[in-house]
Design brief:
Helix content: 25-40%
Number of helices: 9
Strand content: 15-25%
Radius of gyration: 17 Å
CATH architecture: Alpha-Beta Complex
Number of domains: 1
CATH superfamily: Spore Coat Polysaccharide Biosynthesis Protein SpsA, Chain A
Order of helices and strands: EHEHEHEHEHEHHEHH
Length: 236
């Protein structure tokens, strides 16, 4: 697979001053990256200053004046992306930008329209952390699959890569972490060719800045139902 700068990386970030500069360095090292769109979601810890200190012409910085949530930041970032392919990259160090080539392979070869990076079908290194988080993720993924008729192993993964033309057809509405099941449901409706690729994962603890919690799990449940074709028919 020939290397080519064909990827827009959308980075939503909120209070990630401790990691965002190192993360951007890793992203910009990738031979695939044409542009990086960082959406600062109302950070109060100096994140924006850290981002602006990165001197690279491929970097676009978008500022949300108040914290609106990951979904709102992603919508803004997606609107700014201009490359053939678009990937979501969290601003922490849980996901490895060195794996962009693996994620892009089915897209560049013309086999896929959307690729999910799965933490649960991989033999790559994983930091061992919270049991109940993994249970919750598997429950949400199973429910999402039931409503979308997909067979994903990791619906909640950060690493989702899209052909930009597919992404542009999605009318996304969720402001917070409900964006993950919403994206999955709406991609399923398009009939896009979806692939999964195994990825590594270096999860962080709450003490290290992890933000997602049990309330987000309930929001994900709501979104799984709300954006399903079944609910759409019942609500008409």
């Amino acid at each position: 697979m020939a290397e080519s700068k064909c990827l827009s990386v959308v980075v939503p970030c909120y209070n990630e001053a401790g990691t965002v500069k190192e993360l951007l360095a890793r992203v910009l090292e990738s031979p695939w990256v044409a542009e990086v769109v960082v959406v600062d979601d109302g950070s109060t810890d100096g994140t924006l200053d850290e981002v602006r200190s990165v001197g690279d012409p491929r970097l676009k910085v978008v500022e949300q004046v108040r914290n609106m949530g990951k979904g709102a930041a992603l919508r803004r970032g997606f609107a700014e992306a201009t490359s053939n392919f678009v990937v979501v990259q969290d601003a922490d160090l849980e996901y490895d930008p060195g794996e962009y080539g693996r994620l892009l392979e089915p897209l560049v070869s013309g086999e896929a329209d959307v690729v999910f990076g799965s933490r649960f079908m991989s033999d790559r290194p994983h930091r061992v952390l919270y049991f109940w988080h993994s249970v919750g993720n598997k429950v949400l993924t199973t429910l999402s699959n039931a409503f979308t008729n997909l067979n994903l192993t990791d619906m909640e993964t950060c690493y989702k890569v899209f052909r930009r033309e597919v992404l542009q057809t999605l009318d996304l509405r969720e402001d917070r972490f409900g964006i993950e099941p919403e994206i999955t449901a709406k991609v399923a409706r398009t009939g896009a060719r979806i692939y999964e690729v195994g990825i590594s994962y270096s999860g962080r603890t709450y003490a290290e800045g992890k933000k997602i919690g049990w309330r987000d799990g309930f929001q994900a449940l709501r979104c799984i139902v709300t954006y399903s074709p079944i609910w759409e028919k019942l609500s008409k």
